[in-house]
């Protein structure tokens, strides 16, 4: 079975959705091989590189939310994450920025067989540890922790070696009609939009397995 998941590493629903997908997949450990492929989806590729703003400021300016609405929206995600055992998960007191370089690091990690590990590490660094994932120095440090090598990461990011890979993922998502993330496609035909409950992921995967048995 092949499961593709499109995400942006600063999307709070994506981190939660990944956590729920992992929980759902645990129930199918004895069914056979499941390949999970992570795809990049930049929520705002036009955001100025190198600039960061607070998450509340983004919600205030882009979505016209007031302080009470912002507190309610971010608090809800944090509460859902906590109820699913995903802690710490800082949404309301965080910063946002352009994620192109982060996605290029993730593509590099995938090229070295560290795809799942790298996505989880960047989610944890961003939502759990409050670390920057928006500049070469910060990403090189994370790459070093993953075993990719600080200098190798710097070279890959400075030359744009994985830019085309990130763009291709985004183009594939648009071709599928994806306008938001997380977005999951199972065996090319079963689709799940959003950070659905673990049970929804589980039931959809069950239907996908049943479909394979029939065909």
Explain the overall architecture.
This protein has 215 residues and is α+β, with helices and mostly antiparallel strands. The chain has a single domain (2-214), classed as Glutaredoxin, CATH 3.40.30.10. It is 54% helix and 12% strand. The protein is built from nine helices and six strands. The chain has helices at residues 12-25, 55-62, 67-83, 100-111, 115-128, 136-146, 150-159, 163-175, 198-214, and strands at 2-7, 35-40, 52-54, 95-97, 183-186, 190-193. A four-stranded mixed beta sheet has the order 2-1-5-6, with helices on both faces. A two-stranded antiparallel sheet has the order 3-4. A hairpin with a 3-residue loop joins strand 5 (183-186) and strand 6. Helix 4 (100-111) packs parallel to helix 6 (136-146) and helix 6 crosses helix 7 (150-159). It is globular, with a radius of gyration of 17 Å.
SSE map:
Blueprint: E1 2-7, H1 12-25, E2 35-40, E3 52-54, H2 55-62, H3 67-83, E4 95-97, H4 100-111, H5 115-128, H6 136-146, H7 150-159, H8 163-175, E5 183-186, E6 190-193, H9 198-214
Parallel strand pairs: 1-2
Antiparallel strand pairs: 1-5, 3-4, 5-6
């Amino acid at each position: 079975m092949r499961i593709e998941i499109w995400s942006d590493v600063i999307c709070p629903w994506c981190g939660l959705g990944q956590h729920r997908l992992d929980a759902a997949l645990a129930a199918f450990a004895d069914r056979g091989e499941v390949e999970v492929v992570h795809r990049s989806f930049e929520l705002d590729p036009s955001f100025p590189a190198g600039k960061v703003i607070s998450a509340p400021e983004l919600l205030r300016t882009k979505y016209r939310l007031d302080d009470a609405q912002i507190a309610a929206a971010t608090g809800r995600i944090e509460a859902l994450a906590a109820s699913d055992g995903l802690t710490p998960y800082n949404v309301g007191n965080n910063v946002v920025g352009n994620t192109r370089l982060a996605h290029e690091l993730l593509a590099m990690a995938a090229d070295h067989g560290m795809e799942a590990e790298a996505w989880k590490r960047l989610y944890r660094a961003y939502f759990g540890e409050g670390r920057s994932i928006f500049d070469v120095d910060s990403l090189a440090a994370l790459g070093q922790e993953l075993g990719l090598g600080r200098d190798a990461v710097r070279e890959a990011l400075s030359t744009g070696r994985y830019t085309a890979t990130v763009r291709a993922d985004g183009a594939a998502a648009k071709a599928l009609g994806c306008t938001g993330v997380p977005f999951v496609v199972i065996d090319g035909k079963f689709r799940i939009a959003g950070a659905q409950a673990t049970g929804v992921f589980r039931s959809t995967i069950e239907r996908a397995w049943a479909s394979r048995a029939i065909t």
